[in-house]
Design brief:
The chain is built from 14 helices and 20 strands. It has 568 residues and is an alpha+beta fold. It has three domains: 120 residues, Response regulator (Rossmann fold, 3-Layer(aba) Sandwich); 58 residues; 268 residues, Thrombin, subunit H (Beta Barrel). The strands form four sheets. It has a seven-stranded antiparallel sheet with strand order 12-11-6-9-10-14-13. It has a six-stranded antiparallel β-barrel with strand order 15-16-17-20-19-18. The longest helix is centred in the N-terminal third of the chain and has 51 residues. The N terminus is likely disordered.
C-alpha cells in the first residue's frame, strides 16, 4: 500500500478541536494557539451548535472555556459524555476556580481541567496528551470492530453449515457436489474475513513506517540556529584540511638546527649531521615541489569544479502524486500533529516534502557535460535510509539538480544524461550558457596512478557547511537569518556573495587496484564526485567513498571507467 489510497484522500488527517467560548474573552487567543500547532480549530456559539458539530462534522476534542457552573458547559458535558456515540471525544475544561472547581469538573465528565490563567505551552501539552489517549481508544475500538465483524462472519458461517447439515438430513437425495460447493463458499467467506483483518493491520503498519522513514530524513535538515553552530564547529577543521604548512615549517626548523650543530660540532659528528641535513633538505624540496604543483592545479582548474545540489521528492506509487505538507504555520514551518510529526497530504497547496543532498562534479566534456557519482544524482542508490522509504509504498524521485560554479552568481539546472552500469559514475548535462570553463584533462593510462605518488583532491566536502565555515561570522549569521536554513536559499546566497569554491587537499596514493584507487588526501561526504589529480595535473580518478576510522583513507574510481559515458 502507498501513502494514499484514493484520489484526493488526505494522508494524515488534521485533528479537529472545537471551542465553546465563555466570558473570559480568550477565544481568539485559543484559536491562534491551536492553529499554530497544526490543529483544525473552530469555535461554536452555543451548546446546541456544539452538539450539531459533534454529530455532523466530527470532533476529536472539545475545549470548554467556561466554569462548571455555566449551564451551557454542564449541558455539553452531559450530552457528550452521556452518549455512547460521542463518549470517545476528549473534553478539556478551562476554569477560574481552585481545586474544588477542578474536582467538580472532573466529576461531571471532563477528561482534564486547566485553571486560568493558562500558558499556551501547557495547554498544548494537555491537548496532545488527550489526543494521544483518544487515538489509542479509537485504535482499540477499530480492532474490536474488526474482531466483532470476523466473529459475526464466522457465526453466520456456522449457522449456514448447520442449515446445510439439516437440509442434508431432510433430503438424502441432495447431490453431494452441492454440499461441497456450499461448504467451499462458507470457507471462502471465513478466509476473506481473515485476509481483511491482516490487510488492515499490514496497511496501517506500512504507512506508519513510510511516515517514520520520511520524518527521520527531515530531522537531518539544517535550520537557522544549526547552520551557524555547524559553521563555527567546522571552521578549525576546514583550515586544517585545506593544507596546513606545519610539515614544511617543521622541516625548515629542523634544517636550521642541523646547520647550527654543524657550525659548532667537532669532526667526528660532521658526516652524520651532513647526512641528516641532506635528507631533510631533500624532503623539504619535495614538499615545496608538491605545493607548487597543487597551486598550479588550483589556479588552472578550480573554476571547472562545481557543487551539485540535489533535491529529492517523494511520490506515491499507486496514484503518482507527490507527497506534500498539509500546510505551514506563520513561521513557515510544516504543520505538526500532537506528537510533533509533520502532517502530510497528497493534494492541496502545501509545499512538497523534499530531502536535500550535496555532492561534487566537474566539467569533463564539451556540451556542458559534468561527471560525478551515481549516488550523488540518485541519492537512494545503495542508501538504506532512502531505500526503506521506497519499500513502504513511497518512491523517491528527483525534483531538481542544480550546479553551482565558482565566481558565478546563479545556478545552472542540469539533468541526468547517462548512468554507468559498471561503476559509481554518472553524467549530468544542462545549458551552461556563456560559461567559459575548461574541461579537465584525463590520463587513463596504467602509469597515471602509481602507489606512493602524490595526489591532489578537489571537492566540496560537507557541502555548504564547509563553504560557510570559511566565511566570516557576520556573513554566516546574515545568510542564516535570510534563509532560515533552507538549502536552496543558502546556495543562492553563497553564489550571490561569490563564496563558492572547492576545498583542495594533498596526499599520496596508497594502493592501485583494478577498480579503485586508495589515497589519503582528506575529504568527507560532499566530496563525492570530485576529481583526483596526479602531479602532471591530469585527472586519474573520481572520489566515491570515504573510509571513516581507517587512517583517513578514501577510494577513487579510475577515470577509465568514465570514458564510455563521455563518448558522443
Amino acid at each position: 500500500m502507498g501513502v494514499g489510497r484514493q484520489k484526493g484522500q488526505t494522508v494524515t488527517e488534521r485533528e479537529k478541536i472545537l471551542i465553546l467560548p465563555g466570558k473570559s474573552g480568550s477565544e481568539q487567543l485559543l484559536l491562534e494557539t491551536l492553529r499554530s500547532a497544526g490543529y483544525e480549530a473552530d469555535a461554536a456559539a452555543s451548546a446546541p451548535e456544539v452538539m450539531e458539530a459533534v454529530q455532523n462534522i466530527g470532533v476529536d476534542l472539545l475545549l470548554l472555556d467556561a466554569n462548571v457552573t455555566d449551564l451551557d458547559c454542564c449541558q455539553v458535558l452531559s450530552d457528550v459524555k452521556g452518549s455512547a456515540a460521542t463518549a470517545a471525544i476528549r473534553v478539556i475544561l478551562l476554569s477560574d476556580g481552585g481545586a474544588g472547581e477542578r474536582s467538580r469538573g472532573l466529576d461531571l465528565g471532563a477528561d482534564d481541567v486547566l485553571s486560568r490563567p493558562w500558558e499556551p505551552a501547557e495547554l498544548l501539552a494537555r491537548v496532545r496528551a488527550q489526543l494521544r489517549s483518544k487515538r489509542a481508544f479509537d485504535e482499540l475500538n477499530e480492532k474490536t470492530r474488526i474482531a466483532e465483524e470476523g466473529q459475526e462472519i464466522a457465526h453466520t458461517a456456522f449457522q449456514a453449515v448447520a442449515v446445510t447439515e439439516k437440509m442434508t438430513r431432510d433430503a438424502v437425495t441432495l447431490d453431494r457436489r452441492l454440499k461441497i460447493g456450499v461448504t467451499s463458499v462458507l470457507a471462502l467467506a471465513v478466509v476473506m474475513a481473515a485476509l481483511y483483518v491482516l490487510f488492515w493491520r499490514s496497511a496501517s503498519k506500512e504507512t506508519r513506517r513510510a511516515y517514520a522513514a520520511i520524518a527521520q530524513l527531515e530531522r537531518s535538515v539544517t535550520k537557522q540556529q544549526d547552520l551557524v553552530a555547524q559553521a563555527r564547529k567546522m571552521r578549525d577543521d576546514v583550515v586544517r584540511s585545506a593544507g596546513s604548512p606545519e610539515e614544511k615549517q617543521r622541516l625548515e626548523k629542523q634544517s636550521q638546527e642541523l646547520r647550527a650543530k654543524l657550525a659548532g660540532s667537532d669532526s667526528g659528528d660532521v658526516a652524520a649531521l651532513r647526512e641528516q641535513l641532506a635528507a631533510t633538505n631533500t624532503r623539504l624540496r619535495h614538499i615545496e615541489q608538491e605545493g607548487r604543483i597543487a597551486e598550479g592545479i588550483i589556479r588552472t582548474y578550480t573554476k571547472s569544479v562545481c557543487i551539485l545540489y540535489v533535491a529529492v521528492a517523494f511520490r506515491d506509487k499507486q496514484s503518482g502524486q507527490r507527497l506534500r505538507y498539509a500546510g505551514t504555520n506563520p513561521q513557515g514551518e510544516p504543520l505538526q500533529d500532537s506528537e510533533g510529526n509533520p502532517i502530510y497530504a497528497l493534494t492541496g497547496r502545501g509545499p512538497e516534502v523534499r530531502a536535500d543532498f550535496f555532492g561534487t562534479g566537474f566539467l569533463a566534456a564539451d556540451g556542458g557535460r559534468i561527471l560525478t557519482n551515481r549516488h550523488v544524482v540518485e541519492p537512494w542508490w545503495k542508501n538504506e535510509e532512502l531505500g526503506s522509504v521506497s519499500q513502504e509504498g513511497v518512491e523517491p524521485v528527483i525534483a531538481e539538480i542544480s550546479a553551482y560554479f565558482p565566481d558565478v552568481p546563479r545556478a545552472f539546472r542540469v539533468e541526468i544524461q547517462k548512468i554507468s552500469q559498471d561503476a559509481d559514475l554518472a553524467v549530468v548535462q544542462g545549458d551552461l550558457g556563456d560559461l567559459k570553463r575548461p574541461s579537465l584533462p584525463f590520463d587513463a593510462s596504467k602509469q597515471a596512478a602509481v602507489s606512493g605518488q602524490s595526489l591532489v583532491s578537489m571537492g566540496y566536502a560537507t557541502g555548504p557547511a564547509a563553504i560557510l565555515a570559511r566565511a566570516g561570522e557576520e556573513t554566516v549569521e546574515a545568510i542564516a537569518a535570510a534563509t532560515n536554513g533552507s538549502a536552496k536559499q543558502v546556495m543562492a546566497e553563497l553564489a550571490q556573495r561569490n563564496l563558492i569554491r572547492p576545498l583542495t587537499t594533498q596526499g599520496h596514493i596508497g594502493d592501485v587496484l583494478p577498480d579503485k584507487i586508495v589515497y589519503d588526501a582528506q575529504t568527507t561526504s560532499g566530496g563525492s564526485g570530485g576529481p583526483l589529480f596526479n602531479p602532471e595535473g591530469k585527472v586519474i580518478g573520481v572520489t566515491y567513498a570515504v573510509v571513516r576510522g581507517f587512517g583517513g583513507s578514501n577510494f577513487g574510481i579510475p577515470i577509465r571507467f568514465a570514458q564510455p559515458l563521455l563518448r558522443p
